[in-house]
Amino acid sequence: MSFTSLKNLPLKESLAPGHRLCDGCGIPHVVRYALKAVDDHSVVIVNATGCLEVCTTPYPYTSWRVPYVHTLFGNTGAVASGIVETIEKLSSEKRSQYFDVIVFAGDGGTFDIGLQALSGALERGHDFLYICYDNEAYMNTGNQRSSATPMYSRTTTSYAGKAIPGKLERKKDIIGIVVAHGIKYAATASISHWRDYMTKVRKGVEVKGPAFIHVLQPCQTGWRYDPALTIKMAKMAVDANVFPLIEVEKGKYKITYRPPKKILVADYLKPQRRFAHLFLPENDHLIRQIQQYVDQNWERLNKLEKFSETG
Questions:
Q1: Which domains does the chain have, with CATH numbers?
Q2: For a tag site, which of 41, 102, 143, 197 has the least CB within 10 Å?
């Protein structure tokens, strides 16, 4: 399938309108693009507790037009594993058609609570695509910090004041952790770059074994910006190299998008009131520190890509 234009995308919507996700939420883009990318496949959706689940399945309603299973925060990888093995058993006995299994889980249910079950599923090699929609905090329960929350971000549990300037720890490298399991395909994506994202979804579904995609999904309520800016915020994260777009196929790194005009990290942070405290004169050094870390990480990825080409 070629994703060259919005005009050639499937018209079918597997996620119905009328859900209760917030104005300006990026999660519908994560789901709709993914399901359009696999339009000619039969899929089963496994969805961890979180914003997507509570807003699309308030009993007795559902927005899902494909088979759907809700899991707890911590057992998504295990549930997906069981579904995969059941489908493979039934399809091999010709008692059922084959279904691809796609997982949707937030950063809290992936980076933190669900990491153990995800790790086990990756290590065992179950054939599913895991998509982490990352809004960088526990937004479903009120914007508490997760290990996906960026350094110096203000949340309800990493308050920015005189004692500390927000969360003190760096964001966890979930792609590095996933790649360490030796899976065949892992990637990052952004809702602002839909062709790149959909291509990666298609690759992830078609690979034999587990695949993982980490999608940046800005949250206007937690990041505290104008809801109309969601796609722009996602693009600015990529253009500032805060969220580089990469893929790792069989251990080989590739940068899939290079910003034609890089912007400063400060330009990306400024529209988000969760970082407003960083623009006080006494915190200027913290912005420089974030910029330095972003530059170092971009250099690291370039070295990994070069090594992958020559190694």
A1: 6-310 (3.40.50.970)
A2: 41
